[in-house]
Amino acid sequence: MAATAAATTTKAVVYGTLSVVYVAFLVNLLIQILRKAMDIRMHAINDYGRIIHEFDPYFNFRATEYLWEHGWKEFCQWFDYKVWYPLGRPVGTTIYPGMQITAVVVNQYILPDWSLNDVCCFIPVWFGALATLCTALLTYECSIGIVHSHNKQDNNISNNI
Questions:
Q1: Are 103 and 120 in contact (CB under 8 A)?
Q2: Which cofactor does it need (predicted)?
Q3: pLDDT of 152 over the 90 cut
């Protein structure tokens, strides 16, 4: 009886130690993955500085500036004659303003010392890391379900033998 209790205690200690090592490994791996995801998104900023590249991001930056300067009500009614020339575009009703709202909120409440341009340059870095984190957590959640289902099947097979 004492040998069984000692074996059970030893198994618990080994299992606990392996669990700590496993969690430490996963956390370290996740940190490295997030660091690499941020490095990839920081490439343009590191090479060229904090500037907006290409046309579409520049349009989004102009829309963010307009939202910052004129507010939500004016933004929703904004008709921009500088795009879709010569017709123009009703911007407030034809775009998804999530990125613009996020940039304005971050600039106003979280990083008020930063310029709006800098916030817009770093949003892809932050959201890239957030998307990577969400993907990693979803992958972990899905793979744990597979591992547990295989363990249950193994237990059922060994119990039936």
A1: yes
A2: Mg(2+); Mn(2+)
A3: no
pLDDT band at 75 (very low <50, low <70, confident <90, very high): very high
Please count the CA atoms within 13 angstroms of the CA of 20 that sit on its side-chain side. 5
Place of tokens 């341009």: 117
pLDDT at 156 over 80: no
3-state DSSP call for residue 88? Answer: coil
Backbone dihedral angles phi then psi of residue 79, each to the nearest 5 degrees: -115, 110
Are the beta carbons of 125 and 45 closer than 8 angstroms?
Answer: yes
Are the C-beta atoms of 65 and 78 separated by less than 8 Å?
A: no
- Cα separation, 122 vs 38, in Å, equals 10
What pLDDT does 54 receive? 76
Check whether 158 has a pLDDT greater than 70. no
For 80, the enclosing helix (H) or strand (E) is strand 79-80
